[in-house]
Amino acid sequence: MPKRPDVFGSRVPRLSTCLLAGLFTVTSSGLVLAQDASSEAPPAAGSETVRRPNANDALDATPWSVMAFKGWSNYHTLGRTVRFIWDYVGEDVYGVDVTYTISPETGFGRFWDRILATRFQLGGKLNARAQQSGVWIPELSAYFALRWRRLPWNHIVATSFSIGEGLSYAVRVPDSEIITTEVGGTSRLMNYLMLEMTLAVPSLPYVQLVGRIHHRSGMFGVFGDAQESGSNAVGLGIRVHM
User: Is residue 40 within a helix (H) or strand (E), and if so which, with residue range?
Assistant: First the structure.
């Protein structure tokens, strides 16, 4: 019986050769396009995700800042103060604050940037507390703070939030703390807590309007006999970054 002519057998080498040639052409074209795209794309910083520009990013080039502040002491506790329950106790607080921000390019600064998306800051504040009696009481505070300033609406209003912790020393116990103490005594050296919000024009983030709560507390007897002693001043300030 005569054999069937192997029609496909004679065409397979030609067909496979054509397919391989086409595949090589497509692959070569894809590699050329990929190389062109990679040369046009901005270089990635290692494996990190490239973040969108933010108005407050410019502040990384200005680690030092100075703030002038005026506050008014509240009769109520910190918990009521943050809820805007207000009763003026008759004491004004004037202050100058200096802050230094740790660069995110350093290992320590990069740690806080990656873990909490914050900037780590060191600050010092000199206050003059004007008593109703006319006496002025100097007060010195030193603290560290964490500041959140990469916020999604910063292209509209450049904003930051900060919380700070440290120590506060008053040359004399302020009248506001004597008046509000109900349990235990008072102390010139106390714990210092700072809560702050800043607002700025996105095109000029170096000049900020500041709202701050300045809180002194005995921490339930940690500082001497100051079990329920302390004061809360709420105020406004202007900060300039340099």
Answer: helix 7-40
Beta bridge partners, 52, equal none
Where along the chain do its domains lie? 1-41, 55-241
Distance in angstroms (rounded) separating the CA atoms of residues 186 and 176: 11
- Tell the CATH topology of 55-241: Porin (2.40.160)
HEC sequence for 168-225: EEECCCCHHHHHHCCCCCCCCEEEEEEEEEEEEECCEEEEEEEEEEEEEECCCCCCCC
Neighbours of 240 (CB within 10 A): 13
Q: What is the pLDDT of residue 226?
A: 83
Q: What pLDDT does 50 receive?
A: 56
CA atoms of 116 and 123, how far apart (whole Å): 19
Report pLDDT digits (tens) over 127-181: 999 999 999 999 999 999 999 999 999 999 999 999 999 999 999 999 999 988 8
- The three state secondary structure string of 70-119 is EEEEECCCHHHHCCCCCCEEEEEEEEEEEEEECCCCCHHHHHHHHHHCCE
In sequence order, the β-bridge partners of residue 160 are 198
Q: Would you mind telling me the total number of residues written for the chain in this entry?
A: 242
Q: Is residue 200 classed exposed, middle or buried when 0-12, 13-18 and 19+ CB atoms within 10 A define those classes?
A: buried
